[in-house]
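User: Quick one: structure for sequence A, then sequence B.

Assistant: Sequence A:
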Amino acid sequence: MKTLVTGGGGFLGSHLVERLEAAGHEVFVSRRADYDLTKREDADRLFRDAQPQRVFHVAGEVGGIGANRANPGRFWYANLMMGAHVLEFSREHELDKLVIVGTVCAYPKFTPVPFREDDLWNGYPEETNAPYGVAKKSILVGAQSYREQYGLDSIFLLPANLYGPRDNFNLKTSHVIPDLIRKMLESRDRVVLWGDGSPTREFLYVEDCVDGLVLAADRYDGAEPVNLGTGDEISIRELAELIAELTGFEGEIEWDTSMPNGQPRRSLDASRARALFGFEAHTPLREGLERTIAWYREHAGAVAPA
């Protein structure tokens, strides 16, 4: 099948491209250097060049709490426009299937744990990442509207926080796991972490997420959003202690409580994905972290500077 992966050169996208190519698909990889999907003319050119039957919309402008606080307008605009353009040209090219990757940041700040898809609209997202989360939620509305009016088979998936080899280890924009790994491998005395360590998160290994995307593309055709997760919740403090153990860090962990914690708790109910298309995450957090740390040790010299 001729398959387009937007953001195919990025963290999640590169793993997805490898899986699709191994399965025999003809994959067209969209990278921002070649196609700026915030621009309509670039999105139009991409679809004309790729002529896809199926699209995985993985591209996004993302980052940790610091990046979200520094770029709220950009994150809202870029993610909204990319999604809108992909929807419109998917309609024009009469795709067989559009798979859209959403974000757990779309959930309300005080969603009951575990997060269930029916709670998605029961409040406003946590403030530090609300522009990004709201933009992604708007794409869900667009996908459902295009399905209703034009018959576009578009599905919307909500992965838990991702991690794994090839993650973004740039300390200015990284998420918590690569941030912790890099800091603890590069500093032997002290690392300073934001907040007080009490918030909880659920982490999904990137290869497990790819499993979910591929299964959903083949087996799910519904309008309702679907979570992809493990159901396992860990506090940021416990995560920091685990990564310290796995990296051999024996220095001091200092918590800067003047900085934000982010959303108080995050953990997903993935029962809908299991029921609808047989998704199960298989990689325990410790094992996934060991693989990620090993990858970073091998490739640290090629990672962007802090």
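Sequence B:
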Amino acid sequence: MGDEEAEALADEVQAWIEEHLGPTYPWPGNVRELEQCVRNVLIRGEYHPPTARDGHPEAQLAAALRAGELTADQLLARYCALVYAETRSYQETARRLGLDRRTVKSKVDQYKTEGK
């Protein structure tokens, strides 16, 4: 593939991204998502970004934040649950977040009860 051909393909993908996703698309999957987008546009002529429910808990939380769907209490509960899922310890989660262990346990339990 020559330089001109590669440049034409890059321009085609860039134009597709600008038209369909816009210049402010956050690329929650970072470089891996961009790579998938380029492949899909070149092969299929389209790309459908994963939705938050398809992604990891971090992506789900970010999407809920961007959409303004969470109360401050829900945000804290989700964040505590996210860190707790990594540490598997109320004490370590509390230390990392600068909260009391009982508060962390309460928020994690709240998150589990809400079923989100």
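The first helix runs from residue 3 to 20. The mean pLDDT is 86.

User: Thanks, that's what I needed.
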